[in-house]
Amino acid sequence: MYDGVKAMIEGEKALEEKMGIKPAAAAAPRVQAGPQLKSIADLTGMVDFPPGTKSSVSRFMTEEVFNEYKGQKDKAGVPFELMVLSGCQNVDSGIGVYAGSHDSYYTFPKLFDAVIEDYHKHGKEDKHVSNMNYQELVCPPFSEVEAGMIISTRIRVGRNLAEFPLGPGISKD
Length: 173
Prior knowledge:
By secondary structure, this protein is mostly helical. The protein has 7 helices and 2 strands; from the N terminus they run αββαααααα. Strands 1-2 form a two-stranded parallel sheet. The protein is elongated. The termini are far apart.
């Protein structure tokens, strides 16, 4: 019986090779999202997020996207897995994917384009128009009552030089 089964397996392999059919690969291991993921080495397969997870990475990092980009790095050397690790660890995050450098948007467009369009409602071909002439701003003064309600303000700028990595790709080097 054993010899017969082995002969059938060999016959199937020979037929697949003759017809140019690649043998079916074993299903890739899947990884459960959560704080147990400590490093990119833990992202050995597609991530399964718990029901109700709403982050952008959970919605737009499909198995196809993950398999296409896994093991790749952007031009700054930042691995794809590092860009999604935080969102895979923290299932309550809102976005969960962070570009490693400016090049990440071009190296991994299937994920970043979807996230940006969903979050900003701004398509890839759309153009953002800003009037940077401060003299044309329409900002009437605050009333005394309104001005008294303002305790502090803060402006945050989160950009970097194009030749250097962004947050996830920054190292001591």
